[in-house]
Amino acid sequence: MRGASSLAVSTLLIAVEIDGRTMQRECDCCPEIAVVHETLVRDGVKSEVHLCVAHAQERGYILPSSEGPTLIVSKLLEQTKPVAVRAARACPVCAMTMAAIRAAGLAGCPQCYSFFEGDLGLIIERAQGGATVHVGRHPEHAGELVDRAAMRNKLAKELREAVSREEYERAARLRDALLQLGVPVDKNEVDIAFKIGSQGDEKDGAPS
Predict the structure, then answer these.
(1) What are the distances in angstroms from CA 140 to CA 2, 105, 106, 136?
(2) Is the model's pTM score more than 0.70?
(3) Torsion over CA: 180, 96, 121, 189 (sign)
(4) Are residues 67 and 108 in the same domain?
(5) Could you tell me if 104 and 140 lie in one domain?
């Protein structure tokens, strides 16, 4: 409907429009043409209100104006508790949403890591003791096996970055998570693992 303004609410839907030509209905209070049409649906029960300019002004829906009637949105806001309505984003590969990942504590597939990159890191880290890559089982409805090679590469990269920043505790957790994948590590990764251990021992043995 032209000129319509609407509020989405949990138990109440209000649709208001100011256009006498769109809905040729008489005012509920007099024979004049209604210019405000309000539809309320509460607990599955629908009711309608149709008001002309004068009665809409009387009830506070519109104010007199030299340019024609003006809708008072604040009146609707006072009567309802609007909630934001936003379509949930879903991974294009496994169809997992961020809410589902939060509930499970696991990503659905490797694509989730790039699709939800901004939100997923902390969740995975909390769920898996510091590792920011999904190393556990994947939900059965994901539709495909988790790409362990891609996960291993990402985990190994984060391991090297942690070592270069001397974040040895985090590096140790990442190394352990890499081993949980059941994939043999290459020589460079073995060298990194030894570096973690040796430098960690030096730090522990250093005089305070």
Answers:
(1) 46, 14, 11, 12
(2) no
(3) positive
(4) no
(5) yes
